[in-house]
Amino acid sequence: MKLANSRTESFHGYFVTCFVSIVVVLIMFSYYFSSSLVSFSSSKFEFLSSSPSPVATSELQRTVQISDRQIQAVHLTASSSDGAITTVNRIRNSTTTVIKKLSTVVLRKKHDLIMIKHGLARARASIHKAASTRNISVISSIINNINDDDYVPNRAIYRNPGAFYQSYLEMERRFKVYVYREGELPITHYGPCKDIYTIEGRFISEMEHGAKRFRTSDPHRAHVYFLPFSVVWMVKYLYKPLTYDLTPLKQFVADYVRVVSTKYPFWNRTSGADHFMLACHDWGPHASKGNPLLYNTSIRVLCNANTSEGFNPQKDVSLPEIHLYGGNISPKLLSLPPSHPPRPYLAFFAGGLHGPIRPILFQHWKDREDDMIKVYEYLPKDLDYYSFMLKSKFCLCPSGYEVASPRIVEAIYAECVPVILSNHYVLPFSDVLRWEAFSIQVDVSEIPQLKEVLMAVTEEKYRILKENLRFVRRHFVLNQPAKRFDVFHMILHSIWLRRLNMREMDR
Ligand SMILES: *[C@@H]1O[C@H](CO)[C@@H](O)[C@H](O)[C@H]1NC(C)=O
Ligand SMILES: *[C@@H]1O[C@H](CO)[C@@H](O)[C@H](O)[C@H]1NC(C)=O
Ligand SMILES: *[C@@H]1O[C@H](CO)[C@@H](O)[C@H](O)[C@H]1NC(C)=O
Ligand SMILES: *[C@@H]1O[C@H](CO)[C@@H](O)[C@H](O)[C@H]1NC(C)=O
Ligand SMILES: *[C@@H]1O[C@H](CO)[C@@H](O)[C@H](O)[C@H]1NC(C)=O
Prior knowledge:
alpha/beta; 5-stranded parallel beta sheet; binds 2-acetamido-2-deoxy-beta-D-glucopyranose; Exostosin; membrane; signal-anchor
């Protein structure tokens, strides 16, 4: 069987499949539950343990009984030392009180951990069941359960619609995030809400002030822990322009992790595996190097999802880049004319000569007097960027300095089929969405033949791609406050999936 990742290397081969043994392990030592893997990329899920969800109560009772016995044992020891009875009684009394208090705390923590593990096991089991069902009426009943009037599901855009819907419902039912309170404004608890890195600030803000359903103020009840710093603000306040010295960013991140891992037990418990950070700035991955465990073990939610620069899709999350000029989406993209006006241009791009791919695009297509392919470095002043998108069938989305491009989301809004031109880029939400249903990927080596490649897309295929864009749009929309299935919830769902796939290792 395949392992999702090797984050818990030392525990490989130690699979606990039956809960009686888990209870013993739990009381004797630290304990460890093997977990099943949830993956939407394959039609069937892989399991490490056979039975994921037995009943919790009997196990809890057992824990309580054993702890009571321990308390009685202490009683007996205390009362056997005869003599000055009142003193002994006093000692016994205070010992008992202390032990009771201690055991209440210990029990409560263990109880919380057990509840979390059982909840996750149940979620995995129900997702697994939904994923493997081929029965349309069962899938429909899951979808109807979503209870969201304006939602018209379209199965083609999902790898496994049953699994996705079930997993989404489980997330709503259970998922709890703890946001660390440490750190001061503006670098923590706040982020940019305008311009190109918007998503960083909007996510932090939603997590801090909205998202009540997914927050917990009790860190013992959390599934994941959020490190709420903004790399964009680190660059603004800590970086010295033109030095290209990213040490201050790494230092900040290192300090933040040091503070929370010294003050709380949670980081050390999993070596950071159930902690996450989020950054849209190109330098997000560099900043995360400030702590080796954050880089290699934690969930990093990044726009710059470049697998050649350490992005690991098993544990990291690809974050869509959304450009909000002045904090808003262009009104032109907000609501499209229902009449489907003609799109005279085959393909459109306008943007700076950034990164490794655009020079190739410009070399072959820039400023060519081609009626169908419109590629500009600087868009002439009399032409409007979004109008161009709305008049083009395909929108070219080449990587710039970083792999992600805000054009992808803009193209989705404009119902202009995105043409992904990138290397080593993990597309956002690609563990649940079938990008091939609403975009085209063109290999960088095929840029010289771009026109032929796009001309070869049949009318019928184009019609389906475009129609699917309409369905996928809601997953990329930023709402304030967030709405079900929008981009905030999709990001959270990606984190939830990583947490489901994490192999438990707790003390
Ligand atoms: C033990 O403490 C409780 C409350 O603190 C008190 O009511 C009780 O009398 C004490 N018992 C003895 C034996 O000291
Ligand atoms: C599909 O599921 C429904 C509800 O559980 C059941 O009534 C029906 O017989 C199933 N159909 C098939 C083909 O298994
Ligand atoms: C976590 O581990 C670090 C490094 O070993 C240590 O300095 C820190 O005190 C630990 N934190 C807690 C809460 O024990
Ligand atoms: C991540 O782990 C690899 C392999 O153990 C190691 O070589 C690398 O230095 C680590 N990265 C960071 C940023 O610590
Ligand atoms: C992705 O990472 C590789 C390796 O560092 C780099 O060569 C490439 O330019 C990066 N891609 C982008 C678009 O930044």
